[in-house]
Amino acid sequence: MSTLSEYTNCLKRLLIDIGYRPEPFPPYDSNYWGPFHSWMLEDLGPTSTWSLKQINELEHAAGGIVERAYPCASIELKLLYAKLTAIAILIDDSLEDEAVYAEILQFSHRLYLGHGQENGMLALYHANMKDLSGVYGDDAVLRGLAIVPWINYIDACLLEKVLFTTQREQTAISPCDSTSFADADALAPKFPHYLRSKSGIAEAYAAGIFKATKEQNIPLTRYIRVLPDLTFFIEVMNDILSFYKEELAGETYNLIQLRTRSLSSSGARGSGVGEKWTAHDTLLLLCDEVRAATYRIDGMLRLEECEAKMRGETGIGDIDEVDLEIARQWRGWRDGYISWHFECRRYKLSPLKAMILRGEEVFES
């Protein structure tokens, strides 16, 4: 486990290295928040057993990430992504409800058979997926990148539930010897990222970066090569910024903890007692990997050159308007995505924001 100062120093260094720019919080947009608030209360809320306070927190999280990460997007695109994000969070948090779980089990099956979803929440999910598909028009490849991950997410939630249930059952049977499940994780070095890629919906969010409006048609060939690094950035940056709250909650089945067990079992030498590999070592490793991925994305999208041209610097050739659009939308995504984590109550990073972004001294509590 990292200490608070270790975590904040690690994160501070990463954000400096990748050139993160904290932007001012945007003014209230009634054209976005008004319809989304009404939909949350009148459409999504009644499909769940959640309290008004829980629905409000869900609205804050789902609406906030889309507002911050897609500053160039149209209201239409923002609302669709915000709605799908809200339902995805609700689905994940509803798996312990056996009645809802039984419906979720049948989601993909009903979808493949062309049957409607009987559960109200899942019907909304499917309806918004269809609406998002319509936005992508005739671009079948980009549409697949934007839609399929929302379907795969359902199966990822079910997979995680199976794994968690197995872990609980093994612990209940042998409370003094619950290592077999952890040992299996340790022996599967590719599994942590496999599981994360299934549940992250990252490819869908990445597709949205380069489709700001229904009318915008940036050629896929101009950015397709960055998608592997971009999906990695989306998934792992979230895990790095989630690490603090998950450590507070004592979570043990996430990317960082799973990869820690895997690397520890492989004999990797770390900073722990007896050179044992620790979660903090994994955090540092992931920061290095995200840093390298960000540099590659910036390089392939020519971010530095594009921003120099936007500033009016001379001697910048071979940059066209499409390059500038791509650069603006990527910069808006990565800075907004990070900013949202600091602003969202879910991640508990607000008290650390000044320490990380302004370099204030960290005091252990």
UniProtKB/TrEMBL annotation:
<keyword id="KW-0456">Lyase</keyword>
<dbReference type="InterPro" id="IPR008949">
    <property type="entry name" value="Isoprenoid_synthase_dom_sf"/>
</dbReference>
<protein>
    <submittedName>
        <fullName>Terpenoid synthase</fullName>
    </submittedName>
</protein>
<dbReference type="InterPro" id="IPR024652">
    <property type="entry name" value="Trichodiene_synth"/>
</dbReference>
<dbReference type="GO" id="GO:0016838">
    <property type="term" value="F:carbon-oxygen lyase activity, acting on phosphates"/>
</dbReference>
<comment type="similarity">
    <text>Belongs to the trichodiene synthase family.</text>
</comment>
